Amino acid sequence: MSAETVGIKGVFAPNGRRLASAPAGATSGEHPGWADPFLDLMWAEGRADFQVARLGDDLVGWDGYVYRYPEGLRLRPSDLLEGYRAEGVEFFRRLGGSFVIFIYDGRRCQLTLASDRLASRPLFYARCPGEVVFSTHIRAVLDHPGVSRQWDERSVVEFLRFTMILGERTLYRDVALLPPASVMTVTPEGGRIEPYWTFRFDERWDLSGEEYAEGLAERFVPSVRRLMPEDGTVGLMLSGGLDSRMIAAALLRLGMPLTAVTFGGFENDEVRLARRVAQVAGLPFQFLGRTPEYYLPLLQHAVRLSNGLYAFYHAHMLDQGPALRASGLDTLIHGWGLDLLFSGSYLPRRRVHHFPGRSFLLLRLQALRNEEDIVQSLLQRLSLPTDSLVARLPTRPWQPAFQDWPRQAVSEWVSLSGAYAQSPYNRYDWVLVRQFSKFRSFLYPLSVRWLVRERCPLYDPDLLEWYLRMPPHLRFASRAYGRALAHLHPALARLPYSRLGCSILAPPLWQNISYILLPTIQRVRLGVRRIRGLHRDYPAETFDSYPRPDLLLRQPSFRTLLEKELRGGPLADGGVINPPVVQEMVRRHLEGRASYGDHLMALLSLHLWLSDVEG
Questions:
Q1: Which of 260, 211, 198, 252 is nearest to 235 (CA)?
Q2: What is the largest CA-CA distance in the chain?
Q3: Mean pLDDT per 10-residue run, the chain (615 residues)?
Q4: How far apart are CA 534 and CA 553, in angstroms?
Q5: Residue 462 contacts residue 330 (beta carbons within 8 Å)
């Protein structure tokens, strides 16, 4: 296992038949391991959130953090083994946290692998004749001689059309991900995957709006308490949004010391708002600055960390190791993903057309009348825009898949959602949350885990169950979320919300006016700053700290990389894309005649991953 693939890597042969060239954990001098006639396992020690223990003939471990719900008690490896033996799969319903667990029962020759409720710690596996290969990094699975590296055509199409791959599929036909809230059990008699919890909406909606907000506030504080480490120094990733404010309010209620941390290239709007939030909350604040060209040095690491599932530019924290070590922080809490559940950030908004080719969004739910409306709205959310040039990107043999598969894939997921929700908005949300660990920006929490212990209340069972009870109209536009923050810390709720430009407690009419005007105000301010020559070299806009693909790929270093790397490569050699079309897209983008940043980012990320794996 290389520096980018630390974790676990195992080969289990329940009948004792192993390929002669399969890796043997105990023979590795670089990493500790286990080897008997049935299991070869290697793991990397010294990681903050990785534990493994030998218990006689058994081996138990996990990547992440796991606690017994609702008490929040930290579990020992022996607790996991005893609980699983006593209760079977049902035992995992009593667990909370972000984890992937492995249990090897040497006496029964049984391997058990389990994921948390959202599969927030990816575990890859492949079935070979007589064997199961598994690892926390796909590269380790692909290195096994019995695993084919043949691409999955649908996954390649989805990555280039959505910049994400839906479900448990990966770029490779033989390799899959362990599904959310699932347990894989392999014995000499065979293998099976079964759920221990079902992501199903409760649509009774028997409470008032205020009761839902109060219930969310009441559950948020203990959910944060349960994820806190037993030792070390804690930092909170602070932004201008509501998620980190909710966590800050909960930590203040618990009386736990922490330092607020925000990263960025300069004092942009989000950094200034985060500083103001820290000041109101009475928290020490640290700004983690970075240079304009910070992404290029971490490029290879980001690509390898992506497992071929994500665009590399979301690895926001990989360059912050020295700063975090200098600050003495060994745990970072963040609110990434909470907006998907409680702010309704991805629920479809109503669009108003006022001039030909001109429109704006309202803080009103778009009508979803039937299944086709759900499919169409999800395609608008997921798909990268297509024009006549992008339409010619795939070669002729790949044209049908590029045209037909995205709609077919989304339609299949929407059809599945009918078994778990009746409301069209809940069905829409079910499809998205079901892809949680495949989201384009999921590389952000992965990059945090690489450096320090990473924590997020999103994975708490109580919060997830409350989300499943809340009506869509109260999740939308943070209606209950904002009221919950007001219950925990009124002063933080009164501060402007970065996505609105005003307080979340402002009257709905004023929120709509501010929401409509905010993009125009930001564009004008950005134009003025660029005319003045301020921050021109940074790949982020001036109102937040996240890089924009359009800007990032126009940096001098990335211009050179684009022109060099996308002239050919695995996708062209494999007959997937037309190199002349790619070169024309690069040319138009770099000249500023078109904005193909998202498309080129997907192409470059996939190209770099395949070149690294196959090179």
A1: 260
A2: 73
A3: 64 74 47 81 71 91 92 91 95 96 93 97 94 94 94 97 96 98 95 96 96 98 93 89 96 93 85 93 91 84 94 90 86 94 91 67 89 97 94 96 96 98 98 94 92 94 97 95 97 91 89 84 76 68 74 87 90 95 95 93 96 87
A4: 19
A5: no
